[in-house]
Amino acid sequence: MTEDMSPAERYAAAKLRAAEQATALAPFREMYDFDLDPFQVEACQALEAGKGVLVAAPTGSGKTIVGEFAVHLALEQGRKCFYTTPIKALSNQKYQDLVKRYGADKVGLLTGDNSVNSEAPVIVMTTEVLRNMLYSGSQSLVGLGHVVMDEVHYLSDRFRGAVWEEVIIHLPESVTLVSLSATVSNAEEFGDWLDTVRGDTAVIVSEHRPVPLWQHVLAGRRIYDLFEERDGRSGGGRREVNPDLERLARMENSRPTFGRDKRRGRNLREADRERERRQRARIWTPSRPEVIDRLDNEGLLPAITFIFSRAGCEAAVQQCLYSGLRLNDQEGREEVRRIVEARTAGIPDTDLHVLGYYEWLEGLERGIAAHHAGMLPTFKEVVEELFVKGLVKAVFATETLALGINMPARSVVLEKLVKWNGEQHADITPGEYTQLTGRAGRRGIDVEGHAVVLWQRGMNPGALAGLAGTRTYPLRSSFKPSYNMAVNLVSQFGRHRSRELLEMSFAQFQADKSVVGISRQVQKNEEGLTGYRGSMTCHLGDFEEYSRLRRELKDRETELAKQGAAQRRVAAAAALEKLKPGDVIHVPTGKYAGLALVLDPGMPSGRTNGHHGYDAQDGPRPLVLTAERQVKRLASMDFPVPVEALDRMRIPKSFNARSPQSRRDLASALRTRAGHIVPSRHRRARSEAADDREIARLRTALRAHPCHGCDEREDHARWAERYHRLLRDTRQLERRIEGRTNTIARTFDRICALLTELDYLEGDTVTDEGRRLARLYGELDLLASECLREGVWEGLGPAELAACASALVYEARQADDAAAPKLPSGKARDALGEMVRIWGRLDALEEDHKISQAEGVGQREPDLGFAWAAYRWTSGFGLDEVLREAEMPAGDFVRWCKQLVDVLGQIAAAAPPEGSVARTARRAMDGVLRGVVAYSSVG
């Protein structure tokens, strides 16, 4: 290549190589045994140039390389780097990765329940830990050069997303921010916001998947490609839905033709029936063991099967075990047992039995496992380790596995495209589909990844293709101020500056951006209003005033007309209600106007004369026989005026409305009996407008107005009508703008007003009570602070305090659980009751201050569902007994216990030093942090 270059070109290339060798990126690239992708190089170069970066790239594309370069830069410059993640499992994983690269002396870990080497230059932590550091003014922030926010798209999370924005806004200006995100469709918008609040930020978006993803549908015994590549007429290939799948869908939806052939009046030939039976037999959903076996035969393992249910994941493992499925050879089984026994050596045998260890181990030895939040963290980590080593080849997981954990597979299987979202079963979104299938394809191992969707009855291949082909995953802020945030902000910046900071949030940025188009429309409307006002100007007087009188007159006449129409409808309905079977009436209007005999009055209440009644809101709907022999159900619109019976006739008991002969005979009798009767003409009542004083006054004012005599009056009136219509539209747009702007700041003002009423704030000053609230984080921060203030927890023992504190963190998965929770007796029960009473008072205060839980702000009701389990566990009872009484998976129990330890630590730090609560909280922490709860998740 260099031989073809001129001397000048060779000199320029050599100079470029020398410049590259002088950068920090050059030695960093040599640390990897593969070359960096263009987007990684671009991001690293921007970082080295001192810019912040936002990298949005597909799962598995290697965007964490950019985060690792920030670590490399910080160490080279003698500064610190914090690497934040949304979940502890991901923090633990990243910690292990960085320790392998830089050594345990340079890397630390800080999560809610682990602290390792906390003064190291590189610290991996959960995002909440960094937020708490920023509010407390931690000394660990001194010398901080870079912060990596992995999975930054978590700021869309309804419950925790606000933490990401708090960190981004409050980080010192000197800190360079590295934001790593999944592919989002509004990365540029997010980048614009980062540019506004953090300074110069490079936005690097990569849509390229390093490992191509193939989409499939598994129906019966066959795996179909979802798309078929076709050459377009304009050149290049285009993807279309596989016609075989569309044919399957049509076949499934077509009606079976078994039975009789009506045209020939005899059965279908046996051969035809057999052919149809064979075709339909091709469309079935294979069982879970059959799916794994089929993927194994096709060379598509290891695979992750996403099942949107914990129980479904466990059931899938059991089904595979019962079927005799084995995916590991003898050597693999022995290696699995060795790793598992080493990782679980610290767990007592009695606890292992309770945790279902032996059934779990049998699945692992066969290469099959479940992965969900209900599992013990240690068990989940073992599954992840074995999967990465290739010793577990089939994992059945809930969607939480898709959120960040580095566990790629060759294939991903989706059983269904519907999941429970907490309120209802809903179709998964294109964003969720992308996130789930993004796990397919291991870089450096697989040539291609595979996403397999199982065929389900009623599946629409076109809709699936839309899911697979759409890349709309917009990042939406979930930022809302909280009580803790308010006191921390006011303490550091005062209320005015705090308000300005909150208006810098991404939530407000998006809200303000959404009104830009509306504002532009308002501006155009105002220009139009100016033109209309000029066109309706009259030389005789104020035409705007004259137009207002005309509008008021029109509105009053419309109102009276509506009232009259409503009264006529009521009168007509009342007349219909008086009808009886056998009444001869005259239908005044409609398709069936004329003489008719009432067969059934059609009253809303139940059955009358054998016919169903109708809804009360529809009014009576009489069933009649017309003089032309038609039997019809009439509606209220056929009777604009009251109707009355002209005569009566007896309806023969033998009358059958479906019999043409019966209808003909009765209609003939009707014409004979009442054909000569002329219905009385309904006289319309005198219009209320004729006697209305307001209308008379407005008409007099109109005639007296100078503009009434203008020759161009109607021309002016047309312009005035356009003016007022546009003015009405403009006012509506302005109200929309007002509703969207300053929404965060308005909520902050309401929170501050409530905190002032409770003596947490005095203007820009945070009181002693406020400083206590500043140390309490969580959904029920204000409730915890009020309980400390009122001494609700004084005099409690460790187990009793643990029971009370559990109500601050626990939230049942089914909020509408009907059974009342079991509670400890004595002081603990009294304290829990007092907590609920205090919450009721706070709830009423929030309502007074227009602070709405529906908008994600405010205190939810404390949930007492974990109080008994927390009390028993802290009292020293065994795991078997506690789990059996709690009816809770071990993983959930451990997770809630760790959150309980966290909130007890906050209570110990915030409690008054003169009381006993701080000491009791520390003893309660020791009581909770034992056995399975204490097993460190850092190996």
Account of the 3D structure:
The chain has 939 residues and is α/β, with parallel strands linked by helices. It is 47% helix and 13% strand. It is built from 34 helices and 30 strands. Strands 4-3-5-2-6-7-1-8 form an eight-stranded mixed beta sheet, with helices on both faces. Helix 19 crosses helix 26 and helix 29 (798-809) packs across helix 33. Residues 232-237, 257-266 and 606-617 have low confidence and may be disordered.
Can you count the beta strands? 30
Low-confidence spans: 232-237, 257-266, 606-617
Distance between the termini: 50 Å
Radius of gyration from the CA trace?
37 Å
Average pLDDT score: 81
Q: What does the oligomeric state look like here?
A: single chain
Strand percent estimate: 5-15%
Keywords for this entry:
939 residues; alpha/beta; 8-stranded mixed sheet; 7-stranded mixed sheet
Note the topology:
Blueprint lengths: L6 H15 L3 H5 L8 H11 L3 E5 L7 H13 L3 E6 L2 H15 L4 E4 L4 E2 L5 E5 H10 L7 E6 L12 H9 L5 E6 L5 H12 L2 E5 L7 E7 L2 E4 L1 E5 L5 E5 L1 H11 L6 E2 L4 E2 L2 H12 L6 H10 L5 E4 L3 H13 L7 H14 L5 H6 L2 H9 L2 E4 L5 H12 L5 E4 L13 E4 L3 E3 L4 E3 L2 H8 L11 E6 L6 H9 L13 H20 L3 H9 L1 H20 L7 H35 L5 E5 L6 E7 L6 E2 L2 E2 L10 E4 L4 E3 L13 E2 L11 H15 L18 H12 L8 H28 L2 H15 L3 E2 L2 E2 L1 H6 L7 H9 L8 H12 L17 H22 L18 H8 L4 H8 L3 H21 L6 H12 L11
Parallel strand pairs: 1-7, 1-8, 2-5, 2-6, 3-5, 6-7, 9-21, 15-17, 15-18, 16-17, 18-21
Antiparallel strand pairs: 3-4, 9-10, 11-12, 13-14, 19-20, 22-23, 22-28, 23-26, 24-25, 26-27, 29-30
Helix pairs in contact: 3-4, 6-7, 17-18, 19-26, 21-25, 22-24, 29-30, 29-31, 29-33, 29-34, 31-32, 33-34
